[in-house]
Specification:
Elements (H helix, E strand, L loop, with lengths): L1 H29 L1
Length: about 30
């Protein structure tokens, strides 16, 4: 159970980080 929870945490952390990176690229494109 703990291993699954850690895996989900990593997945969400990477997903949120990835979305943030995409947003940064879009904002850079507008400038």
């Amino acid at each position: 159970m703990l291993g699954t929870s850690a895996l989900c945490y990593e997945f969400w952390r990477l997903t949120i980080f990835g979305i943030g990176s995409i947003k940064n690229e879009i904002f850079q494109g507008f400038k």
